[in-house]
């Protein structure tokens, strides 16, 4: 790794490393951690590099270094409609914990939710595709989307969102979409907690601890509550990327 850095420097180039796992001290000239929790990692980076006897690179930490696609830049704050009509649900590419199916079953058996439209984004490797499609055909207020390359228009259409705590959170943040999130894997914990700490998104817990059935009910109750809606729109409305 040091050879790579030297080779870059010998050619007059600086080696830049994008990191979000803090697993090891990578020899580089510039280190970028664009996550919302990035600024909280400064002391950890300093300790990690010192312990490894590797020169500390220049640190660029935080959302100002977020590598957003052009379509997600400079989106104006959304206007509050006063009530929720459309709910976006994004469960990631695989949804190995089957939260999408649990959400659908909860919506189906609770007629009080019939007044909302639920837009389900289904990942390419979701093993519940057929079951989800069958339920969606029976429910006029459930709309499914498969293999979308961009969620921007759907995010702008929907009033609120439920999303796994992956990179989609940053696109929801950029589109000023009030969001309730949940944790699926260890590498999502810091991001979910970071958005919650900043008062931007509510985290309803870790699916591995709560289970899909309990979490589905918690997510829907939270995202459709008037208390959450007003707070989230107020706070998200002032964001500008």
What keywords describe this structure?
alpha/beta; three-stranded parallel beta sheet; elongated; 2 domains; disordered C terminus; 241 residues; 10 helices; six-stranded parallel beta sheet; Rossmann fold
What is the chain-wise order of helices and strands?
Answer: HEEHEEHEHEHEHEHEHHH
CATH superfamily of the largest domain: Glycogen Phosphorylase B
> What would the average pLDDT be, to the nearest integer?
90
Number of helices: 10
Radius of gyration: 20 Å
Number of strands: 9
> Structurally, how many domains make up the residues?
2
Shape: elongated
State the helical fraction.
25-40%
Structural class: alpha/beta
Extract low-pLDDT stretches. Answer: 233-241
Percentage beta strand: 15-25%
Task: Summarize this structure briefly.
With 241 residues, this protein is α/β, with parallel strands linked by helices. It has two domains: 2-67, no CATH class; 71-236, 3-Layer(aba) Sandwich (Rossmann fold).
Structure description:
The C terminus is likely disordered. The protein folds into two domains: 66 residues, no CATH class; 166 residues, Rossmann fold, CATH 3.40.50. It is of the alpha/beta class. Strand 7, helix 6 and strand 8 form a beta-alpha-beta unit. The protein has a six-stranded parallel sheet, with helices on both faces. Helices cover 37% and strands 18% of the residues.
């Amino acid at each position: 790794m040091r050879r790579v850095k030297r080779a870059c420097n010998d050619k007059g180039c600086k080696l830049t490393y994008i990191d979000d796992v803090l697993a090891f001290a990578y020899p580089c000239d510039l280190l970028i951690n664009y996550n919302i929790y990035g600024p909280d990692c400064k002391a950890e980076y300093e300790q990690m590099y010192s312990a490894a006897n590797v020169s500390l690179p220049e640190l660029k930490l935080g959302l100002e270094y977020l590598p957003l696609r052009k379509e997600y830049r400079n989106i104006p704050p959304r206007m509050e409609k006063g009530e929720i009509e459309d709910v976006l649900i994004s469960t990631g590419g695989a949804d190995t914990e089957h939260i999408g199916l649990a959400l659908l079953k909860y919506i189906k058996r609770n007629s009080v939710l019939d007044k909302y439209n639920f837009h389900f984004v289904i990942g390419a490797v979701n093993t519940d595709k057929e079951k989800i499609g069958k339920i969606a055909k029976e429910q006029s207020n459930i709309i499914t989307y498969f293999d979308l390359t961009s969620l921007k228009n759907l995010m702008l259409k929907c009033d609120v969102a439920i999303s796994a705590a992956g990179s989609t959170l940053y696109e929801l943040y950029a589109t000023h979409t009030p969001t309730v999130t949940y944790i699926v894997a260890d590498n999502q914990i810091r991001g979910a907690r970071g958005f919650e700490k900043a008062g931007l998104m509510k985290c309803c817990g870790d699916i591995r601890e709560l289970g899909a059935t309990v979490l589905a009910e918690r997510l829907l109750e939270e995202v459709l509550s008037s208390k959450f809606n007003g707070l989230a729109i107020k706070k998200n409305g002032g964001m500008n990327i």
